[in-house]
Amino acid sequence: MRTILITGPGGGGRTTVAAATALRAAGEGTRTLLLSADHADTPGVALGTGTGPAPTEAAPHLTVWRPDATERFRQDLTAFQSRAVTVLDLLGAARLDAEEVTPLPGAEELSFLRALRDAALSGRYDLLVADLPPLPQALALLALPEELRRYLRRLLPPERQAARALRPVLGRLAGVPMPAGWLYETAARWDLELAAVETVLTDPGTAVRLVAEPGPAGAAAIRAASLGLALRGLRTEALIANRTLPDAAPESWLTGLLAQQRKTLADWRETHDVHTVAHLGRDPQGPDDLAALAVPAVDPAPAPVQWPVTDRTAEDGVLVWALPLPGAIRDELDLVRRGDELLISAGPFRRIVPLPSALRRCTVAGAGLREGELRIRFAPDPDLWPAAGR
Fold first, then answer.
1. Residues ≥6 apart with Cβ < 8 Å to 2
2. Whole-structure pTM value
């Protein structure tokens, strides 16, 4: 199965392009789901049919789904109150009724990610087209599973569950209440669910398509997005230059805008696989208009993004870890080694990544940025690295 994540600057037409991509694939006989994070029924307007919180068949082989984050949050909160009934009673806490519950910040993102996981693992579809929120919300959304799993593992380490029988004793000795079993069970369940989302996002069949209008604002957004996605190890499959203008007569008022678009397109083609989608002169609405957009087809998944480690101990005495970071600026890069992890800061983006096993027995010997690739040099630690002949 393939998963195409579509995002771009707000107002750039990402939802329309997502609908056109899904409709084209469905027209070729591919069982396709268009999953949208849009609150309004923008996908339905583009497709010419209403969509909602229940999966809707919009065309042969095409299903559209806009998950209801409010209802999912109500279900989760109700289940939480049931599991934590003893603690809530001890605290004298009043229960929340389902009717008074509104989603907290982050609830919508989690609901969408879980819907993404459920759809990808259902086995009912050959292609999942995910219409993500605009940049930069989409980048935060894609980072959420990994970051939440990190917090869960630090706050409630799974290995401590082995001491479940000792918690009452430890609580009496320490004089403070110890985490109850239900709390660890909840954390374990969340960790499992988030791991499933990560599996979908890191699958070789998953890729990102960026959608933007060619111009200064679009260029700045795409430059930042490309770096943020690369740091997450996500592959940008295509850049769709939306609403490109036809050649205009020299005296036309469109001449300046056309020149601006041409310059941006030329810059984009140096770093991306660019597909232009012509401006129809109106907002696309209905299957005929979506077909006229001529979005690129969904091809079989190419090779996944790799961060290879090259052994150069014989030549230079180091191992080199190569991380593609297109658009990174040397002065905005920072690396911090912490145990078996590496904290990487690139401009406004930050990620903590585990070191490959071979590099955990090394020390950082330096790093350099060249042609959009960060190369980190690691020197083997003599105390940990097996010496020749041993």
1. 126, 127, 128, 205, 206, 207, 298, 300, 301
2. 0.86
